[in-house]
Q: What sequence folds into this?
């Protein structure tokens, strides 16, 4: 009885929680955030937020391209603090007044949550 319980706990440790959390946030956070958009725009907003993952293309400039022990934030050009400031501003611009397309806000929101996901991946797990 007791050894079965110990074995179950060991099995829990083999589950790659960090990876599950990382990709869960990349795919599920945009799904939840899409509900803050107008009903007729939610699907498009979700897809746009998913598409903001292309921001990771800046990893191609780094060597090695992927390093699980490296903090992306402040390292890659599109993950720089300046870039993040731009993404935050994009979340709050008055698009209707400016007559700019609404989906730019979805791009901004997607990018800010991408940065939060990358940040927690380093700060909370290493
Ligand atoms: Zn990233």
A:
């Amino acid at each position: 009885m007791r050894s079965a319980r110990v074995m179950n706990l060991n099995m829990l440790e083999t589950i790659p929680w960090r990876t599950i959390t990382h990709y869960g946030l990349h795919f599920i956070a945009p799904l939840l955030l899409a509900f803050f958009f107008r009903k007729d725009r939610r699907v498009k907003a979700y897809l746009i937020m998913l598409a903001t993952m292309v921001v990771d293309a800046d990893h191609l400039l780094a060597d090695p391209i992927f390093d699980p022990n490296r903090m992306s934030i402040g390292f890659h050009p599109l993950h720089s603090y300046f870039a993040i400031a731009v993404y935050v501003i994009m979340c709050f611009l008055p698009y209707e007044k400016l007559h700019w397309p609404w989906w730019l806000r979805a791009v901004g929101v997607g990018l800010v949550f991408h940065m939060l996901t990358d940040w927690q991946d380093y700060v909370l797990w290493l």
User: Anything to note?
Assistant: Residues 2-123 form one domain. The helical segments are 2-14, 17-33, 42-51, 81-92, 95-98, 103-123. Residues 29 and 113 are 8 Å apart (CA to CA).
